[in-house]
Amino acid sequence: MTARRIAVLAALALGLSPIHFDAQAATVRLGNLVPGTLVQKDVQSIRERRYENLVEQRTDFSCGAASLATILKYAYQQPEVTEETVLAGMLEVSDPQVVLERGFSLLDLKNYVETLGYRGRGYEVAPETLDEVSIPVIVLLDLQGYKHFVVMKKASGDRVYVGDPALGNRVMERDEFMASWNNIIFAVVGDGFDRETVLLSPRQPLTAHRLQDVFSPVPRQKLLDFGFRHADLF
Q1: Whose CA is closest to 183, among 141, 227, 150, 154?
Q2: Catalytic-role residue among 55, 63, 69, 113
Q3: How is residue 196 annotated by DSSP?
Q4: What integer best gives the mean pLDDT of the chain?
């Protein structure tokens, strides 16, 4: 039985239907702005903006796979990675019965990334040092009893930038994030990390007083602090 078939059967066994979303981009043609000219402008739909640089989850139980796919695709420069390939790979290294009952765990994510040659590292982070997390990581949030994996891109001041595979890119108030988070982060560590990943440069809120954050490449020393090796960086 192929991994793809296992993934489909798991979804059916859970009684879940795939989540389908459509995002449409278009080119707008503007005429007569200047006599005799035609201006073309590429525009982005609201949905595309919401899921920019984020792998969207397609089933109710695949938030972990989509979050991990987001990091592999946008922080480890693997454009071919999809939620489906990660989901199938995770099912190969996990207990299907446990997945059916409880969903995936951080251990499943760790076991899977290690099959790809990366290292999975879990860290407990004190609330007051959240801003020092300088790489995109996966966190588990408890949203009114619903356990949900998301990508934490950056914490700054009173807000936390989150890539939510179900709801899209959003900014959470720090108090809201802290109330939902278990103080654990999961980092993917290994060769090929993009120190200038777009995940560390989320779009800023559209209010003037919040345009103060400056995002810069991750210093090598910070990466070493998170478990990277010199061989991963040079």
Answers
A1: 141
A2: 63
A3: T
A4: 81
